[in-house]
């Protein structure tokens, strides 16, 4: 497996300054949304990150994510945004919508707890903020760690195969975390795990081919349907 160039990070940073500025702008918007959400009702973030200050947590993970892209992931073919490819990534929106529909059908069948979603309109602030952090914690950071480790261990194996193995490994993290957090009947557990796994694989494919920002947007689509829209209507439909 080829060794990443030591100068790759600095060169990419200089060549993609505008893209990095877009990332930082998104981070600032996310922090603004998190600030309003946190001081409106601190319990929203407490459900997911405990006593951690969300502004500090998002700031640290956000800046770490930028550094990881600049000095690590670019050398493996991952970037914040690949030139001219954002609109092409939208062709996968229908697949993301399908995953959200499956999640809704599971809820319709077994009726998950009433408080699984942040209530509307607070959800409009909370989910775009937490989605950004989720992408970094479940995808960017573990993927960088897996790729760096694999690059040292599997030096003589085709780089694409090693990258695919790392993607598959990272895709397992969120669905496993999700089912450990909640209680599901066995059938719903299997469907939920597979659905989130396929969603993560789709996201990581989008990440590899189009960049971090399209991957983040795909989660915004998923959250908009599953957590925000369905989170609003399910209260009248199921309860």
Task: Tell me what the structure shows.
This protein is an all-alpha fold and 239 residues long. It has one domain. The chain is 77% helix and 0% strand. α7 crosses α11 and α8 crosses α10. The N terminus is likely disordered.
In the predicted model, the low-confidence regions spanning at least 5 consecutive residues are: 1-15
Radius of gyration: 18 Å
End-to-end separation: 55 Å
Mean pLDDT: 90
Let me know the number of strands: 0
Provide the β-strand percentage band: under 5%
Summed up, the helix count is 11
Global outline: globular
Profile the largest sheet: none
Order of helices and strands: HHHHHHHHHHH
| Overall number of structural domains | 1
Helix content: over 70%
Assign the structural class, choosing from mainly alpha, mainly beta, alpha/beta, alpha+beta, or little secondary structure.
mainly alpha
Outline of the structure:
This protein has 239 residues and is mostly helical. The protein contains eleven helices and no strands. It has helices at residues 8-15, 17-40, 43-49, 54-71, 86-89, 93-110, 123-153, 159-171, 173-181, 186-210, 212-238.
